[in-house]
Amino acid sequence: MTEKILQVGIIGAGRIGKVHAENLAFRISEAIPAAIADVNEAAARDVASRCRISRVARDNSEILQDPSIDAVLICSPTETHADLTIQAARAGKHIFCEKPIDHSLAKIDLALEEVKKARVKFQIGFNRRFDANYSRVRAAISNGEIGVPNLLHIISRDPGPPPIAYIKTSGGIFLDMTIHDFDMARFLVGGEVDTIYATGAVRIDPAIEKAGDLDTALVVLHFKNGVIGTIDNSRQAAYGYDQRVEILGSKGAIATENRYSNTATISTASAIQRDLPLNFFMDRYTESFVTELQAFVHAVLQDKPLPVGGMDARIAVAMALAARQSFEERRPVRVEEVAHIEAQLA
Ligand SMILES: NC(=O)c1ccc[n+]([C@@H]2O[C@H](COP(=O)([O-])OP(=O)(O)OC[C@H]3O[C@@H](n4cnc5c(N)ncnc54)[C@H](O)[C@@H]3O)[C@@H](O)[C@H]2O)c1
């Protein structure tokens, strides 16, 4: 008996679209990238030729209306995600959507409503949950290895800021960058956050301030189960991508280190040195991008529940909005306060 191969359409052939296209083409045997669309046709053609994708669509609707396509990956800019999710759900496609769905909870709710109505699968691209280091930390918490968790620290610093044009449309540091850490905090602790206090500054590039954003931030999280957490973000770390966590529990602690391209150390009379950590998300999180997509493909083919879904996407955005409000009003903000206000506006 031949196994079903999932036919996938990709929307958006930029940085992350390329990563997913390559993984589907060369690392995931149960799915193939059947078509790709981008408003920049040359970008789509380039990815198609490198990833042996037979069809380049000029318009997203060519993918969405094609009955041979089972699932779509939404890899276009954030402001397109909610509308594309709605169109894809109405067309009966299973959906993998990059983070975040949108910057507005009201729009997220509309999109998730359509997903529910259409009974299609929806996974959000919180790839870090699939990283081996963080999976091990989660396992230590869920199997009680370090007892009851009390303190969580997340360090999440980029090697350098993105282009100013990206910053202008990103929704700001909390919605663009810290969003991964908000999801990571919930995932690792296995509980919800009650209150957020966020502070931040521009310490790296005044152009970031002109664009209305921050480049340095510190966030304090109070979980409903009593755990206290911090998230430490910077858009620039001179030594490269810095991604670490630590949890202190009643019976001990668990911590993860950065990942490196090699384990060599050079010892001399003046210093012991090693090479810098893997430079950015495409290198550091390579395996997690494969594993998250494999999980999506398996869940669709076997009609199983997804490991990270619409509600996870919504809560992380609510946390980001609470952080932004906390920074602007210089006070702790309850996540439910933000979610409630947005619900009233919807
Ligand atoms: N999970 C992660 O770690 C991760 C990493 C990077 C980006 N992202 C997310 O992925 C999304 C894309 O980010 P990126 O860095 O790849 O951006 P990018 O600018 O590199 O690529 C976006 C691509 O989408 C195309 N595009 C624009 N509008 C479109 C439309 N209406 N239909 C089809 N294509 C369209 C652009 O031409 C471009 O090629 C963002 O939402 C971002 O937050 C997630």
Order of helices and strands: EHEHEHEHEHEHEHHHEHEEEEEEHHHEH
What is the count of β-strands? 15
Shape: globular
- Indicate the proportion of strand residues: 15-25%
* Mean pLDDT over all positions: 95
Strands of the biggest beta sheet: in what spatial order?
Answer: 12-11-7-10-9-8-15
The structure class reads: alpha/beta
* Bound heterogens, unique: nicotinamide-adenine-dinucleotide
How would a textbook summarize the main sheet? 7 strands, mixed
The Rg value, from CA coordinates, equals: 20 Å
Flag low-confidence runs: none
Helix content: 40-55%
Q: Count the DSSP helices.
A: 14
| N-to-C span | 49 Å
Describe this structure in words.
The chain is of the alpha/beta class. It is 40% helix and 23% strand. The chain has helices at 15-26, 41-50, 60-64, 81-90, 105-118, 132-142, 164-169, 173-176, 178-189, 206-210, 281-284, 286-301, 310-329, 335-345; strands spanning 6-11, 31-37, 55-57, 71-74, 94-97, 122-124, 149-157, 193-201, 216-223, 228-234, 242-249, 252-255, 265-267, 272-274, 333-334. Strands 12-11-7-10-9-8-15 form a seven-stranded mixed beta sheet. It has a six-stranded parallel beta sheet with strand order 3-2-1-4-5-6, sandwiched between helices. Helix 2 links the parallel strand 2 and strand 3. Helix 1 (15-26) packs across helix 12. 46% of the residues are buried. Nicotinamide-adenine-dinucleotide (NAD) binds at residues 11-17, 37-40, 43, 60, 75-78, 80, 98-99, 125, 127, 281.
